[in-house]
Amino acid sequence: MSWPAVELDPIRRLRVLRAAIPGAAVAEAILDAPFDDVWAAATDFEGRVPQIEIFIGAAEVMSREGDRLQVRITPRLLRRPQLLDVVLRRGWCWMVSPMGAAGMAAAPEGERTRFAHLEALTLPGGRLAGPFLQAKMALARELGRIERLALERRGAA
Question: What ranges in 5-74 are assigned the alpha helix state H?
Fold first, then answer.
C-alpha cells in the first residue's frame, strides 16, 4: 500500500511551521506588486534586507552552494555578527541562527503577490516572544516595506 503524496505550497508550509514552533509569529498579506519584484526585493540580503528588517544593520552573503547560503548579519542593537544558514528557493526562504528562525514564502496571485513572513526565537523562553514579534512586524510595517521596494525595483526596470 502506498500513501498519497501531499505537497504544500510555500505559504501553507510557513503556516504549518508557525503552528509547530512555540512563540512563532507570522505576518501575511497580498502585496500590490508582481511576484518576481517582491521576491527579488525580499531576498536581496545585502541591499534590501537591512532596509526591511529593523533589527538588521547589515547582511553579507558569505557562501552560496546551490540553494544553500550562509549569510552573516549584524544586528543593529547587539553589533555582534551572527551566521544564518539559509535555504533559498523560488518562493521559499528558511533561515536559522543560534538565536532563532525566520522564513519567507511568496506565491503569485495574478499581478499581485501573497507574501508571508515568519519569525521565532528558539532560545529558552522563546515561546513568550510571539506577541512581541507579531507586534514588531506590524508596527515596523515590514510587508509594506517589501511592497514599496518591489515597486521601486519595478519602476527602475
Answer: 10-20, 35-42, 49-52
d(CA 64, CA 71): 9
Q: What is residue 152's DSSP assignment?
A: H
Inter-residue contact 27 to 44 (CB < 8 Å) = no
pLDDT in tens, 88-132: 999 999 999 988 999 999 999 999 999 999 999 888 777 788 788
- Looking from the CA of 105 toward its CB, the CA atoms found within 13 Å total 18
Closest alpha carbon to 117 in 37, 46, 29, 21: 29
Taking the mean position of all CA atoms in its chain, how far away is CA 85? 13
Instruction: Dump pLDDT digits (tens) for 85-99.
Output: 999 999 999 999 988
